[in-house]
Structure formats: structure tokens, C-alpha cells
Hints:
Layout: H1 2-6, H2 11-25, H3 32-39, H4 47-52, H5 59-68, E1 75-76, E2 86-87, H6 103-118, H7 123-130, H8 134-141, E3 147-148, E4 156-157, H9 159-166, H10 184-187, H11 198-201, E5 204-207, E6 210-213, H12 220-229
Antiparallel strand pairs: 1-2, 3-4, 5-6
Helix pairs in contact: 2-5, 6-8, 7-8
Amino acid sequence: MVVARKLGVTDVEISKLCSAIVDALRKGPMSPDEIRDATGKASRSLGPEGAKKGITTTVPLALGHLQSSGNIRRVPVNGRLDQQRYRYPLWKPSPLEKFRLSVPESYVELARRYFRWICPATLAEFQWFSGLGVKAAKAAVEPLGLVPVENESERLMFADDRERFASFNVPSKPAYALVSSMDSLFLLRRNLSGLLSTEAAKGEGVRQQGSVRIGQPVGPEQQRDIGSRHDHRAVGI
């Protein structure tokens, strides 16, 4: 909304458009174009200036607000994840209808789920994953009572997870699996080097714009490159 306000869009205008969208979706799921037609004068074009800013109409602004508030959800056309075409149905019952956590409490819950899923991980990795600032990330992690995976290690995990981790016996025979690059083992991790042996991390992989060292941390540009293709190339470790 910061950019939109500079184009003359007001909170009142978006609020009215949100109400119009909800009323239109009572008839069933719609695409953005169908929503724009159904809401009539409640939505409007933002002209050439809006196009320069990447906001052509007010519809995406309202859709974003309705999604974050749990009133609607975005569903890929035909259930496919390899395309950028969506329809929007009302979300009934809304997952946020009985949600009572404050923003700081929500950050703590996000940290709890993150470390239960990924453990062990560093505070910096959680900060990258969550998009929080350093101070907010520290505040979210502090109530969890995480412990270092080893003495003086920056990698943290829950104490009961560390007990299970310490008691794990490496199988005498290796087991291999070919998984998609969208597997959760890789998709939401920034630094794959922690999953690789020293020798494996020196190897090279192929991406859209050329080769890259497998153990190299992935930056924002590479993330967009990987995320835009939604490929299912096998990754061998």
C-alpha cells in the first residue's frame, strides 16, 4: 500500500473493494479478470504510472489484503503448481476466524515450527527464512529454550530433538533417494553446504543461467530463478 498511496489509492477505497470482492465471490471462485468485471466501479485502473510501479489495477491490492486476513484463498487453476494462473474462492471456515495470537506470539509460533522442522539451524538461517529483523528473530527464538547441537555450536535445536539426534546410529549400508528440488529438504533452505560432505560441496550443478557450486549459499536472484521454473530435477547427495 505504500506505493499505491502515492498513486492516490486510499485505505477506504481498498476496504470498499474488499467488500465488493467478497460479495462477488459468494457466487463461486473467480479469476482476477472475472473479479475485476464483477466489482465494476469498485475497482479501477492505476494508469501508466501504476504500470511503471507494477500495479496496474487496485484488484491485486484488495486480493492481497483478503488473503492475509483469511477471507479468501488462492487456488491454482486445475490444481497445477507449474503455472501462474489462479482462481479465488471464499475461505470458509476461515483459518483466522478464531486466531487470537498477537504478532509477537505469531513470530514465536513460526520459530517453534521452523526449528521442529529443520533442526538444527542457526539464528541467521531462521532470520532469512522468516524475513524478520535481527531483534525480532532473537525475540521469537528466546522463549523456545533451544540448545546448541554441540558445545559452542551456533546451530540450535530443541533439547528432546538433540537427545534423539545424539542417539542416532548411522546405518552400515548407505541408502540413496532421488528427490525433487522442491522437496522440503532443499526448497526452504538457503545453505545446502550443511547437508553435504566437504567433497560433495565442491561439485557443480546446473541452473538456468549456468553452472553453480552445489554448496554455495543461494541468494535472492537464484531463489527467484529456482522458484520461477518449478522444475523437478533430481538432486543426488
